[in-house]
Amino acid sequence: MKLTFWGATQQVTGSMYLLEVDDYRILIECGLNFDLNEKQKKALYDKQKSVFPFDPTLINTVLLTHAHIDHSGNIPNLYKEGFEGQVVCTEATYSLTGILLENSAMLHQKRLNTANGKASNKKKKGSLVKDFPRDLYLQKHVKQAMENFFPVAFNQRYRISDRVNVTYIPAGHLLGAAHILVEVHDVDGEKKSLCFSGDVGRKNYPLLVDPQPVPQVDYLICETTYGNRMHEDMRPPGEALMDVIQRTCVEIPGRLIIPTFSVGRTQALLYTLNKLYLDHQLPPLKVFTDSPLSFGSTRIHQKYSRLLNKEAREFKEDNEMLFDFENLVYIEGNDASKAVSNYAEPCIIISSSGMVQGGRIEHHIAANIENPYATILMIGYASEGTLGWRLLNGQDSITIQGKQKKVLANIEKIDVFSGHGDRDDLLDFVRNQDANQLKNIFLIHGEAQSMRDFRDTLAVKGYEKVTIPERGHEYVL
Fold first, then answer.
1. 3-class SS at 347?
2. Which of 79, 205, 254, 341 is close enough to 373 for a disulfide, judged by CB 3.0 to 4.6 Å?
3. pLDDT tens-digit map of 257-292
4. Which residues does 143 contact at the CB level (< 8 Å), separation at least 6?
5. Domains in the chain: ranges and CATH
6. Which 8-state DSSP code applies to residue 194?
7. Rounded to an integer, what distance in angstroms lies between the CA atom of residue 297 and that of residue 367?
8. What is the tens place of the pLDDT at every residue in 293-352?
9. The Metallo-beta-lactamase domain covers which part of the protein (predicted)?
10. Beta bridge partners of 397
């Protein structure tokens, strides 16, 4: 049995790991790499003559922990390059992945249309770009991929080959997210087991179940996004959010702009606002949700409410709707989105993306960044170099939508809505494993320093067999 690390090695994005059991090849995750710019990706893909560093036609099965694009976003390219197997995931992950990949394909189509338009202007009318990026996929590729998904239930063992069984264990973090337990039976009857953590959630998170413990394994592949950090704000989400609303929309009649991810984070936010409204704490403010993707994600959360935590299930039973409340307005078209800028009363605007990198949120930030009565509230992780990261690091001016603007709006941050477990949550996840029985822990999905620091923390706790792989490193297990 051989395990090769092809993604999210000493970086957060691009999760992709290849497990080979004799001639049976299992790809765990198939995510987009946001750490490479377009020029770097083109150079890498041209060198590989593929989006992938392996032959996709030789892959038998894909195992997917959850829907986020840094875990799922390259699946259509896998089929585009000849993969013919199934993608195994939970039911909710199947549904959420579908809308995320469709949205991604729509953005790719716009990218292609723009390139074709430029080509037409330079050449004769109707000429098309033929040398478009290798990683560009369209709706037809998403459709092909989604037709080959195989949804499974939590906590049931499934046989995916003669010698390999998999079990999906609730991980929190996102609706449908799972730790994947892989059990491999050798020809002589000996069993070896691995666990791929996916992204480890946190306890007592709005809507989501707590991460469940994983049975003892031989090899643990563990994410480290928050491997050297603790969540700073330990207040209940409603209390933390209401504090910001009171200061930014009531005491000062301003507007509160919240960049957030459409899938998962927006639903936690709307659920918390709904509870505040029903408790008569939320003032009579318009709350604009400006993301078509978040509307689809919200419907999926309603559909799979049986997978939510006990509090959310009881709330839905008592109130029917998890997310809808008076004064909540869903924005659909681009014209309606832009019209929100003309709304003169104090309000809350929720829009994607969470890192302020693309999406409608860029328009709202551009329209309000020089308004001292506006507040931009960051509620999640922002990768280095993104606009969200620059705002959090106190830059006094930014370039947005091609224009240089002064940062006069107030910038605030709370981390009560972060879906990632912090260092102690990751420690709890690992400490379900007996250090004497673990043969190795592989650290992935985190910045290099976070991995090194978490390795040191594990050593203090008695876990000394810890490896930080590099891209392309393979290990015989």
1. strand
2. 254
3. 999 888 999 999 999 999 999 999 999 999 999 988
4. none
5. 2-229+419-476 (3.60.15.10), 237-413 (3.40.50.10890)
6. E
7. 26
8. 888 999 999 999 999 999 999 999 999 889 999 999 999 888 888 888 888 899 999 998
9. 13-261
10. 406
